[in-house]
Design goal:
The chain is built from 3 helices and 9 strands. Strands 1, 2, 3, 4, 5, 6, 7, 8 and 9 form a 9-stranded antiparallel β-sheet that branches. A hairpin with a 3-residue loop joins strand 3 and strand 4. It is globular, with a radius of gyration of 16 Å. The C terminus is likely disordered.
Amino acid sequence: MNPFRSLRDYEEAVYTVQQWCPAVVSSTLVMVRRGKGVAVLRGEVRLVHGRRLVLQERLDHHTGHVIIEAYGYELWRQDEKIAWYDSQPHPNDPALAGTFPHHKHVPPDPKRNRIPAPQLSFHQPNLPVLLQELQEVAERPAQTGQSRKPQPTP
């Protein structure tokens, strides 16, 4: 099955994420149709060891296959946002030209520290790539990112 053949196929792939990715503990992903060929996918996927992916995609199917028009992906370890991806163009950053507009925000200053994201696409599902990355997060030491909750001081 090619999940990008139709919105229905993509929806089926999203709603069966726990079947094809054993590290997924739960998912609140919901695809909301906004017209005949337009949908928004949003929600959260929780993985083992407190890792999670918060995502939103705007999808279009007017061209005969699904296209991601815009996205935002946040990668979390417990309450620490460790990185995020977005499709907001940064045309004045020559370091991102090779994967324009796909990029990743990373520590130590994620708002300003962006790196190319060649693994992301508007023309194929990004969910498998992101889940694989989160599975590998447990194998790397923690980095300082943004936290939702203040950390206690010793």
